[in-house]
Amino acid sequence: MPHRWDPIAPPVTGLVAPVRLDPTGRRGPTRAQARGPSWRFTAPGLVVPAGISDDVVEQRILESYARSGAPAVVTGWAALRLQGGGFFDGLAPDGRTRVRVPVAANGTRHRGDLGTAVAEDRVPEDEVVVLHGIRCARAERALYDEMQRIGEVREMAVAVGAACAAQLTSVKRMRLYAATRRWYRDVRLVKAAVEISVEGCRSPQEDRFRQVWELDAQWGRPLLNPTILDARGRFVANPDLLDPGRGVVGEYAGAGHRDLDQHEADVDREAAVRAVGLEYVEMVGRTLRDPARVVARMEQAAARAVHLERRWQLAPRTVPTLDEVLDRRDRHRVVETPGMADESPD
Asked: What is the pTM of this model?
């Protein structure tokens, strides 16, 4: 079963496209039938069965697309979600408020509504992929548009990290995309965000901690999720962040860490890390909103680590790079499904 915080969204099934009212009742319900309890209006003249909920984010995206017209293209966070981006859930930072579905008009006259944000943009056909019957911007274009929507460099970098965690694109690919789109709006801001982006963070909050570590504390880029072994080569931990020179480990403890079993595992991991001569800094979301407080705790940990004997080593990294994974997947699509690569996000 997929973990709640899995960066790759689980496969979605059972999406239902809205149908138009039909006076004959053959292709859709009549107006009188649609007013009954069996149907739910998604827009004037468009309905889905009442049991189909738009609490499923992909269903909400589909309904917005149906209101926008066939030439339109879903982009931004919504297109990234349809391509498998688990952290692109369509919710504001409070975790409750819905963010409007971003759609490029592509020549349509739809002006948007409470659930849809329509931009007067055109997405060229070579940047369009069809998923679940929805015309979506490919990953790099969708991410570019999402970064424009966010508009703040650090949070734009978090979005890049989330897309990389879902294996939708890479920092190298986004750097190349921005470099070849010099006429796009906010391109300088996007380029600046790409340059502070990383691959390897497992959650947006982990990435925000990494930014404080790197940019506010100015400790340099940490190792992300490295494998730490003891002196005999036995596994110790996979911490979120590690400064091998200072001997400090950083962990972000999200909501999932409040579970009793998870908390017990966290305590055991901290003890194991300290036992091999590493200091430990754990952060929660509230603390991350105060970078100065985070930096102070990091400096305190570094001062303690000076007196510790190093009894640990790093395991060699044997996994392929993200670009190698993406290049292999691209080659597989070309070889296995010529002409059909646009039908699946994986």
From this structure: 0.90
